[in-house]
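Standup, Tuesday
Yesterday: got the pipeline producing structure tokens again.
Today: sanity-check two examples.
Blockers: none.

Example 1:
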Amino acid sequence: AHVSPQFVYDGTRLACAEMLLGGVTCFNDMYFYPEAAARAAAELGMRAVLGITAIEFPTPYASDADDYINKGLAAREQWLGHPLVGFCLAPHAPYTVADASFRRILTLSEQMHLPIHCHIHETHQEVEESRVQHGVAPLARLDRLGLLGPGFIGVHGIYLDDDELARLAATGCSIAHCPTSNLKLARGIAPVARMRQLGINVGLGTDGAASNNRLDMFGEMRLAALLAKGSSGDASALPAREVLRMATINGAAALGICEETRSITPGKAADLVAVSLRGLHTRPCYDPVSHLVHAADRECVTHVWVAGKCCVDHKTLVQGSQNDLESAIALWQNRLEVRREP
């Protein structure tokens, strides 16, 4: 009832502000009206890889999968060449996308060299329904269609058996691990420690605010580390350095932007975050990396640069008017139905 370009623009501005203040320099998203999200991210100076979403059923944005893809491609054409805004193909999930649409997406991915971002094996129900409808689990179906490969990002990946994990590793796929969302929706715990043992590239995400009240990568790092240890029974599983890689360079690898960013080396874009460890809750500090994961929080972020341009200066947003953003969000709060939860 409320989704519109203005809704997406204002919501993305708020999300970008929260993420930048929390030390996030780049995000990958899947939603409607990507041109509105692109405008919001560009205005705040944030790097974004936006999804060309595809689902089979109609919404106020598009009528069917082809319409979604065509509108997404038009948005990509509009932003082609922008230094901070890129696109990926984003079929929502195997249970909402038909084989014909997946085939078109694969062709576009190969022609345009775009990664594919797709929810996969998030619930028991979707896996069992796929076996009934298609004769195989969702991952096997995507494999049969030819989608698995280094450009494929599977979001969640909670219910995967050993053979499926081995197939992800063999084909070079990536997994976007969203631990808070998985717990809030009571989906389960992804076998991340096993994924890493097999060499699967695992990046860290928050999922959307609808299934995670905070777009907070510091919180996700800590939770991912603790869940991996607790679920595997191994206190050495997913050490702090590995979790930090998941929150940074692994995500860049999944999105195919390693040549532009990913590491602090000459010639790369200066996407940098300054974190203060001077507070009492971060003292004493013997291992800064361990502290980033297990002691620090997003309130410790003091400065953020994207492509060398300062976006957060002494914990204050540089781009955009905070008063304007606060006013816009207050108007949306009054318009939207308030749904309380326990």
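Example 2:
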Amino acid sequence: MKVSVLIPAYNEEELLGDTLDSLRRVLPQAELVVIDDCSTDGTGTIALAQDVVIASHSRNQGKAEALATGLNICSGEVIAMVDADMGPLAGEVLPLVNAVLQGECDMAVAIFASSQGGGIGLVRNLARWGIYLFSGQGLQAPLSGQRAATRTLLEQCLPSRGGFGLETELSLRALRRGFSVREISTGFIHRG
């Protein structure tokens, strides 16, 4: 099965190159798709210098619309989502991709090894509670943006708009529609 990796990017010139290098090491055959969400730094220039598929927004539209744009142009049957600022740790997405490729789940969600900087405790706990209330299933990492899923799941469940609730809404839609969601421990580190 073909794998695509969607990399939404907004002003990520500092880490985008490292992110792409890390992804190439672990997924050398994957289609890498950078969605430049109207960056004002050198993000677009860095993406152009790489062997990747590029989509550029003419105005900043946010992560949900960036991922929707990427989904529309990528060709993979299994699609990973990796933030452009993951840098050398971007390759931690491999176990998520493998879980979906091997049919262990329809969507794999990264549990981060640690968190540095600002906290997300209140929001995370509210998201956990909401997902449990509306689906009956508990998730440890409902806000994790590092995921892999089948194209079918994303086409049915990915919100095309929305702000910080993107990941929570994606998980809730998937669970309520009967898709299997599995959380997997990774070496990703959250930077607040």
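Quick observation on example 2: The two ends are 35 Å apart (CA to CA). Strands lie at 3-9, 31-36, 53-56, 78-81, 107-111, 114-116, 147-150, 181-185, 189-191.
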